[in-house]
Specification:
With 82 residues, the chain is an alpha+beta fold. 29% of the residues lie in helices and 34% in strands. Strands 2-3-1-4 form a 4-stranded antiparallel beta sheet, with helices on one face. Strand 2 and strand 3 form a beta hairpin.
């Protein structure tokens, strides 16, 4: 699993978060995606690394700015992780 954190400029409310989440779900195979307009970021959990250029284009097509993209291996932790 890969965790990708995208800094997004221009999100102002929960509806902005929904627009970005829906666009990412439509264009990529992901396990989880969640946006936070307060932090100005979107977190994506996916089975494989995402194409960063396509991700940037997807976000910018919704009218928001893709500021940065950081990906790292992700291992689920917690009581029910196994």
């Amino acid at each position: 699993m890969i965790k990708t954190v995208v800094k997004v400029g221009g999100m102002m409310c929960g509806m902005c978060e929904s627009h970005i989440n829906d666009a990412i779900r439509r264009d990529f195979q992901v396990k989880k995606v969640s946006s936070n307009h307060g932090k100005g970021e979107t977190e994506i959990i996916s089975p494989a690394a995402l194409d960063e250029q396509k991700l940037k284009e997807t976000i910018e097509a919704t009218g928001y700015d893709c500021v940065s993209i950081v990906s790292a291996p992700y291992e689920r932790r917690g009581l029910f992780s196994k």
